[in-house]
Amino acid sequence: MTKIIAFEGIDGTGKTVQLQRLFERLTVDGRLRVETISFPMYETFFGSEVGRLLSGSGGVRANEVDQKSMALWYALDRFEAFQRFDYSGADVLLINRYILSNAVYQSVRERDLGKPDLLDFVLELEYEHFRIPRADAHIVLDMNPENASENVGKKGFRGYVGDQPDIYEALPDIQKRARQKYIEYAARMPGIHIIPCMEQNRLKSIEAIGALIDAELAGILNR
């Protein structure tokens, strides 16, 4: 059965870097077949709609859409992707942003403060209704929003927003609340592993963070 590892965290925490590091470690000896997916998938029908909402290019901004409707766009992107995914070719599937991120970001926007958060709704929508596969582990990279924001500025050109941050990336208060929501969710459901990326207010090295990830996943990947 394919093991699914999801990399989560606020924007700019190095999810892509750590996913690629783990991919290379797991495939170095050729014994494991490892696939990767990154969400949203901006080249697909539903993913491109998410991209327009995150950039505001379609005239509607992501932070203006009601929270359940926004969560549905992200869920549909995953639903579409897994309709054609071939599990027979993967021992391990590494995912950059997954279901947990959907629940977090649609719960912490300014317009939704004071409302019940969406964790239960998103879990039912994606896992139960759409039958999107459950992750064996959610690796949450935890970093100060200020340091993460500096990394967002280094991302360069991206097709859905160009050289600019997207709407969620550009709102620091959302990032601060999202960080706390990830930590809150880790206490509410199993399988969430918080990886501290900072030490004495300084960012740890890629290798040091990777070693923490490897330690958290050792039992999951070996069973």
Explain what the structure shows:
The structure is a single chain. The protein has 223 residues and is of the alpha/beta class. The protein has one domain: 3-Layer(aba) Sandwich (Rossmann fold). It contains eight helices and seven strands; from the N terminus they run E-H-E-H-H-E-H-H-E-H-H-E-E-E-H. It has helices at 15-27, 45-55, 67-83, 99-105, 119-129, 145-152, 172-188, 206-222; strands at residues 3-8, 34-38, 92-96, 137-142, 192-196, 198-199, 202-203. It has a five-stranded parallel sheet, sandwiched between helices. It has a two-stranded antiparallel sheet with strand order 6-7. Strand 6 and strand 7 (202-203) form a beta hairpin. Helix 1 (15-27) crosses helix 8. The longest helix is centred in the middle third of the chain and has 17 residues, at 67-83. The model has no long low-confidence stretch (mean pLDDT 90).
Write the layout of secondary structure elements.
Layout: E1 3-8, H1 15-27, E2 34-38, H2 45-55, H3 67-83, E3 92-96, H4 99-105, H5 119-129, E4 137-142, H6 145-152, H7 172-188, E5 192-196, E6 198-199, E7 202-203, H8 206-222
Parallel strand pairs: 1-3, 1-4, 2-3, 4-5
Antiparallel strand pairs: 6-7
Helix pairs in contact: 1-8, 2-3, 3-5, 4-5, 4-7
